[in-house]
């Protein structure tokens, strides 16, 4: 059992937090308000291994922390909670929506630069939240990507993903490769429009 922090009370935070509890971990969902109604409702449903707190409480609680906040505020939120994140693995799955065509630096890079003592791994931002820790929601082998500077952190995240059912986990390289992963959003949105469903993923055939 790992202590997992989930920063965010939106649909992604809820999907990740619920699946982490189902996988046997203790989970704290974090928000601006420790009495956030969505977080409290989730914890009541999720059972004894679920708890709620502020973003700072959540960062302090987790050995591994997922950043599931809005892309517009993702950097600010983790900066404000940085004390609790020192030495920890932060899985950043945020996207800027709409994408900022003028920005060359990814959110993943900005977060790693702002939090040098945190082991940031960009992952899971390239697929719908219902599939992030439930890859069996789609048939066949499909792919998930990791970007980060810390090889040990990527291995640990890889183990967590493998335990949730992932087989094709592709290490893209250091955190600068988060640009590639984040740039897939435009393509993902075009596919969503064309296919009329969010239940799809990229599969890298080789
Ligand atoms: N939807 C998907 O399937 C999917 C797939 C890949 C990546 N993503 C990414 O996942 C992230 C989460 O998406 P989402 O739709 O679940 O949630 P969201 O609505 O984008 O964000 C919700 C979270 O952001 C926090 N927040 C919003 N405004 C804030 C502010 N001004 N200051 C501090 N915190 C603020 C909220 O805090 P409170 O809890 O205090 O309200 C809440 O916890 C996004 O970055 C999104 O791009 C989503």
Output the keywords.
206 residues, 40% helix, alpha/beta, binds NADP nicotinamide-adenine-dinucleotide phosphate, 9 helices, eight-stranded mixed sheet
Protein topology:
Blueprint: E1 3-7, H1 11-22, E2 26-31, H2 37-46, E3 50-54, H3 55-61, E4 64-67, H4 74-80, H5 82-85, E5 89-92, H6 107-114, E6 119-123, H7 129-132, E7 143-148, H8 151-163, E8 168-173, H9 178-195
Parallel strand pairs: 1-2, 1-4, 2-3, 4-5, 5-6, 7-8
Antiparallel strand pairs: 6-7
Helix pairs in contact: 4-6
NADP nicotinamide-adenine-dinucleotide phosphate binds next to helix 1 and helix 4.
Describe it.
This protein starts with a strand and ends in an 11-residue tail after the last helix. The mean pLDDT is 96. α4 runs parallel beside α6. 43% of the residues are buried. The longest helix has 18 residues. It contains nine helices and eight strands. With 206 residues, it is α/β, with parallel strands linked by helices. Strands 3-2-1-4-5-6-7-8 form an eight-stranded mixed beta sheet, with helices on both faces. β5, α6 and β6 form a beta-alpha-beta unit. The protein is globular and about 45 Å long. Bound molecules: NADP nicotinamide-adenine-dinucleotide phosphate. NADP nicotinamide-adenine-dinucleotide phosphate (NAP) binds next to α1 and α4.
